[in-house]
Write a structure and sequence with these properties.
108 residues; alpha+beta; 4-stranded antiparallel beta sheet; 3-stranded antiparallel beta sheet; 31% strand
Length: 108
């Protein structure tokens, strides 16, 4: 069953199916017409890479900060800027927490 969440900045929503364990299909944009898949192997690698760290979320579509979640995703999982979606999924499923600073995420 699809889950609807707000993007990291909260300006729009997206839907996803699956889970961090099994991989996710994320639909976004007007009428959710765009789709990207993040594999379970990418989630495992991401969680291992950022374990116990607080980092920038890196939602920039063109220039995410160095060592941010967004930079890692664009370099390892997909060229599409998906940190705005993956961050909320990680928080929703209990793998991360949003830090008081709005652009930071702590991976558990």
């Amino acid at each position: 069953m699809p889950v609807t969440l707000r993007t990291w900045a909260g300006r729009s929503s997206f839907v996803y199916e699956g889970s961090v364990v099994n991989g996710t299909t994320i639909r976004y944009g007007k009428n959710y017409r765009w789709e990207v898949t993040i594999s379970p192997d990418h989630y495992k690698a991401l969680l291992r890479h950022f374990k116990n760290r607080t980092v920038d979320i890196g939602t920039s579509r063109t220039d995410p900060p160095k060592s941010s979640l967004g930079e890692w995703l664009q370099g390892n999982a997909t060229r599409v800027a998906v940190a705005s979606y993956v961050g909320p999924i990680l928080v929703h499923e209990g793998y991360a927490k949003r830090v008081l600073e709005p652009s930071k995420i702590h991976i558990l």
